[in-house]
Design brief:
Layout: H1 2-14, H2 20-35, H3 41-68, H4 90-115, H5 118-132, H6 146-167, H7 172-177, H8 179-195, H9 197-203, H10 208-212, H11 214-239, H12 251-263, H13 269-293
Helix pairs in contact: 2-3, 2-6, 2-13, 3-4, 3-5, 3-6, 4-5, 4-6, 5-6, 6-8, 8-11, 8-13, 11-12, 12-13
Length: about 290
């Protein structure tokens, strides 16, 4: 029972509700490769595992570094952090983070053998960004750069990297297809920072939500969701393939989240965050199907 309890604590620390942010871009990148007749199964699987491992490593790093910098406190409105709450010792979280980054490095070695030396740069940048997000001398999340980091690495890098590893080149469609999942995954971060705006401000963590304020952060969320729905329409208009617009089936759900973020605050946004992660996954899977069928 004690081992099972410890296991569940590690599952909690991994934040499974955030893992769609790892799955969605790999699905889209692989779908573009499939549409171009360049899909390769095992590299695609390796990209998926690597993305999930890096996502969990980022979550552990965020948990550990926010505890070390006293960002997390008893006033925290989000889900329980295992380090701040004392459920898992800080050094154990740090060691787990290092192990996952090392494991991701091993996966990148395989991906380098498939995709070439450019993958070394992608892998190195991804690992450094995972550490720099919450740690280091200039934590990105504490200087209003968290959303930009998420869009670049969970959108552009993840989708285009997945495509490049399989195709050996980069296409215009891969770059364009990277935008919607990147925007929706960024929206997850926007909800997180909107919820924590007051406590982050007290702790000196200047997220973009702290800088912009409540109203403009809500508008940022709406803009990210809106643009994500315009991209498939633009692609369909250019390719004359209506099936690309499959993600629009999630539009009612997206609109409900827009209404929700305009009225909810504090802990109620925990549910909005989980729903936004769900939206990003369902949208991206439908987008992937549309890309493959078209």
């Amino acid at each position: 029972m004690q081992n099972q309890s410890k296991f569940l604590l590690w599952v909690q620390a991994a934040r499974p509700k955030t893992l769609p942010a790892a799955v969605a871009p790999v699905a889209v990148g692989s779908a573009v490769a499939f549409a171009d007749g360049k899909f390769v199964f095992w590299p695609a699987v390796a990209c998926l595992v690597c993305a999930i491992v890096l996502q969990i490593a980022v979550n552990f790093a965020n948990d550990y570094f926010d505890f070390k910098s006293n960002v997390d406190s008893e006033e925290r409105l989000g889900p329980v952090r295992v380090t701040q709450s004392g459920l898992i010792p800080p050094m154990e979280v740090k060691r787990a983070m290092i192990f996952l980054l090392f494991f991701a490095g091993l996966l990148f070695l395989y991906l380098v053998s498939v995709g070439g030396v450019w993958i070394i740069l992608i892998g190195g940048a991804s690992v450094l960004a995972a550490l720099a997000y919450s740690g280091g001398p200039y934590p990105l999340a504490s200087h209003g750069l968290g959303e930009l980091f998420v869009f670049i690495f969970f959108g552009l890098v993840a989708v285009c990297g997945t495509y490049f590893i399989q195709a050996g080149e980069l296409s215009r469609m891969a770059v364009l297809a990277a935008v919607p999942p990147g925007l929706l995954i960024t929206a997850i971060m926007v909800v997180n920072n909107l919820r924590d705006r007051e406590t982050d401000k007290k702790a000196g963590k200047n997220t973009l939500a702290v800088i912009l304020g409540y109203k403009w952060t809500v508008r940022e969320y709406i803009l990210l969701v809106a643009i994500s729905y315009l991209i498939p329409v633009a692609i369909a208009f250019g390719s004359k393939s209506i099936v690309i617009c499959l993600p629009l089936l999630t539009l009612p759900y997206g609109l409900s989240l827009v209404r929700e973020i305009q009225r909810e605050q504090g802990r109620a946004l925990n549910e909005t965050l989980a729903k936004t992660a769900k939206l990003s996954l369902i949208y991206s899977l439908l987008f992937a199907v549309g890309l493959m069928v078209s």
